[in-house]
Structures are given as structure tokens and as C-alpha cells.
Design goal:
The protein is α/β, with parallel strands linked by helices and 266 residues long. It folds into two domains: 152 residues, Rossmann fold; 102 residues, Orthogonal Bundle (N-(1-d-carboxylethyl)-l-norvaline Dehydrogenase, domain 2). It is built from nine helices and eight strands. The chain is elongated, with a radius of gyration of 22 Å. The model has no long low-confidence stretch (mean pLDDT 94).
Length: 266
């Protein structure tokens, strides 16, 4: 893809739209407009990308070569229904769990450009090692998306919608659920006036060591040791927090069962 000849409209102004938009902008892709359902968010990203912006879907520029839909999965069908026709352009979404054929009937050319990473508006990260998973309804556009992805990252793969859905499920466990556990651990500490940053070396080592070990082999703690006494003490502390207590119990049971299954496999 020649960025001098392919004009892009970004739909959305959230975490993914912001960071992907900035990455494309820094790699000299011409972004000609940003759309968001709220004018304030459209304006913020539009000014960051030094481009036009709108909150009116009927005012979307119809002269772009590519439309990147970086919006909530649940909002995508409604946006597609109200999009101005641009049937010669390539329409692309960036979601892990949304199938390719969500675009069928709305445009002739469509694809997926899915970056497997967690994004926040305020935290800039390098795209160079973020895996991209692409898909398109024709080979020419699949190659085009591959070229776009390779201009941002060294890791680009072609994945079907079904494989991408499984990947997204795994990512929710690895990222979203893990981060929520950080939140719960922070609540325990802050309730008793303990600085949450004291956990950072532990969190970092836990993440780093699976570069060298299978996660099952890296598992530590009372559940993998079958330390029922310690587990009982922890559950007692959580008596007044039934939801957190149940999470602790279920995770401990899952760790214990996984250890048994691992021993059977060896």
C-alpha cells in the first residue's frame, strides 16, 4: 500500500482508534477524517491526527480508500446501517470476535485488521511487536491489509474469523481477567493502607517468566501445593466479600485440577 495514494477515515475515537490512528499517522498514512458519535471525542482525536472530524455519520467523507471501524462491537451493526455508500472502498474492522461477514451486503470489499494488544488512550506503545491478524473477502485486499499491517508491525498473520474468535477468548483470559485480578488485589491492599506498588515486582516476574516456561510449569502458590490450610485462612479473610471469595475458591479449584491434569499428561 502506498500511503500517498490511499486515504483513510477512522470511525471511532476510543482506545484502539486513538492508538491505531496515531500509529498510522506516524507512518505517513493520510487520515482524512475521524468520526465519533460524540463531537468532543471526535475533536480530540481529529486534532491529534491533524485532520477533519465529525459526529454526524451522514457527513462522513465518501472519497476515502479505506474505512477503519474501530468502534464497540455492539455499535458496529447500527453504524453500518447508517453509513453513506462508498462501495468502491475497503471497509475494515479491528475486532477480535466480530466475523468478517458483518460487512456483507453493505460493501463489496471488506476485511479485518486486528491488533492483539490492550490499548489505553493515554498510554502510547510501540506497534513494532504487536501481532496483527488480517482477513479479507478477496485475495487482493488481503494482500493490501497485509502490507498495511507490515508497515506497523513485524508480526502479521492471516487468520479466519473462527480462529480469531478463539484468539480473542484466550486474550480475555490472559489480559482482561488478569487485569481485573490486579484490581481485586489492589482493593485488598488499599483497604488496609498498603501501597499497591509493592506488588509490581511480583506481577512483572509472573509475566516475564512465561517467556521461558509453560504457564503450567510457572504456577506457584497454595492451590498448586494443595495447601488447604492456607486456602482456608484466605477464604476466612474474604468472608465479608462473597463475590471475591467465590472467585478465589473457583480459581484455586481450577489451579488444583490443572495440576492433576498436567501430571496425567506426563
Amino acid at each position: 500500500m502506498n500511503p500517498e495514494k490511499n486515504k483513510i477515515v477512522i470511525l471511532g475515537a476510543g482506545n484502539v482508534a486513538t492508538q491505531l490512528g496515531l500509529a498510522l499517522y506516524e507512518n505517513e498514512f493520510p487520515i482524512i477524517q475521524v468520526y465519533s458519535r460524540t463531537l468532543a471525542s471526535a475533536e480530540i482525536l481529529g486534532k491529534q491526527l491533524k485532520t477533519a472530524y465529525t459526529a454526524n455519520i451522514q457527513d462522513i467523507n465518501t472519497e476515502a480508500d479505506m474505512y477503519i471501524f474501530a468502534i464497540k462491537d455492539s455499535a458496529l451493526p447500527s453504524v453500518l446501517k447508517n453509513m453513506p455508500p462508498a462501495n468502491k472502498s475497503l471497509w475494515v474492522h479491528v475486532a477480535g470476535s466480530v466475523p468478517l461477514d458483518v460487512f456483507a451486503g453493505y460493501t463489496e470489499r471488506y476485511g479485518v485488521l486486528y491488533p492483539l494488544q490492550t490499548f489505553s488512550k493515554s498510554r502510547k506503545i510501540s506497534f513494532s511487536n504487536i501481532p496483527f491478524f488480517i482477513e479479507a473477502n478477496n485475495s487482493a485486499d488481503e494482500l493490501l491489509l497485509e502490507n498495511v499491517a507490515f508497515s506497523l508491525s513485524d508480526k502479521v498473520m492471516r487468520f479466519s474469523s473462527e480462529k480469531r474468535k478463539l484468539l480473542h477468548l484466550a486474550a480475555v483470559f490472559a489480559c482482561n481477567f488478569t487485569n481485573h485480578l490486579y484490581t481485586l488485589s489492589t482493593q485488598i491492599l488499599e483497604k488496609h493502607g498498603i501501597d499497591r506498588n509493592i506488588l509490581l515486582p511480583l506481577i512483572q516476574e509472573t509475566a516475564f517468566k512465561i517467556n521461558d516456561l509453560h504457564p503450567r510449569d510457572a504456577q506457584t502458590g497454595p492451590a498448586v501445593r494443595n495447601d488447604d490450610e492456607m486456602i482456608g485462612q484466605h477464604l476466612e479473610i474474604l468472608d465479608n466479600q462473597p463475590l471475591m471469595k467465590e472467585i478465589y475458591r473457583l480459581l484455586s479449584e481450577s489451579i488444583s485440577r490443572d495440576k492433576i491434569n498436567g501430571e496425567r499428561d506426563t
